[in-house]
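User: Could you write out the 3D structure of this protein bound to S-adenosylmethionine? I've included everything you need below.
Assistant: Certainly. Input first, then the structure.
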Amino acid sequence: MNYRHAYHAGNFADVLKHATLVGLLEALTVKQTPLCYYDTHAGSGSYELAGPQARATGEAASGIRPLLEAQQLPSSLHVYLNLVRSLNSTPNAGGVLSTYPGSPLIAASMLRENDRLVLSELQSDEAAALRDLFATDSRVGVHKRNGYEALPAMLPPPERRGLVLMDPPFEAQGEEFDTILTCLQKSYARWPTGVYALWYPIKLHETVARFHRKFEATGIPKVLVAELCLHADDTALRLNGCGMLLINPPYRFEKTLESILQSLAHHLKQGRYGRTTVRWLSGEQKGPPGLRPKRPGPHPRSTKR
Ligand SMILES: C[S@@+](CC[C@H](N)C(=O)[O-])C[C@H]1O[C@@H](n2cnc3c(N)ncnc32)[C@H](O)[C@@H]1O
């Protein structure tokens, strides 16, 4: 395995994933009852933007950095950006970010005393860094383990409420989608009420379309996808865009996603190209949220015909 997230921390893919994560956790923590957060591909939890790896690619320059300068953002993005600022070791040091938080640190900052975090990470040094980061946080369990195997084995959580973030490196390219599908099907069978959020890359349109078709065929009933493309999706060589696939998203979360995506496309697009999509992949609400059939009234049987 060669993938090192330190090269990509704070890029536009992280921004979409972490803004979505923040929106989901905001919605899920409205209820007081405890919840469990699973991160199947957790990374090291925090990244040095001034370090040699991040500087070698400079990807944050077209992700988190311009967004921090942006005006007129939807409220979910404000929450995310304030979190990034507050988790920085040197906040407001001339407006320059020195560190970028990973998904486990973002989640740990938003979760409450009675919530739990279960983090899987396969690479020894990344898992060791995670353990150090959360050494004094008794809510957090770090597992140096294959997240695809660990997740279904650990479900359902005793809390019965919670969120799974799946953020694979996609080193196996198209084949990774099949591994994900198998893992999500197994996990959903064990915990059908959990909220699941998968991040995926968009390189070739057909690879993603095939994955969506296979996902629809599983019959999992409530699946929302949101995609942000900054380049035309016709080359396998670069990350043209990325998407989030959500199972059981919170009520009206499609509205939150629409505002996040429109704002990200506006602030992060580099040329003239920028495409966003939010649509139901499966279930009663299939199709673009705006075109959904109206729900029947609360007592349809009592209405006069
Ligand atoms: C995209 S990074 C994760 C970034 C992190 N979720 C975040 O948002 O900050 C993917 C991570 O998955 C790890 N990884 C790769 N294959 C894995 C597997 N099968 N199980 C668990 N972790 C894996 C890699 O070492 C890498 O740290």
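The chain is about 35% helix and 20% strand.
User: Perfect, thank you.
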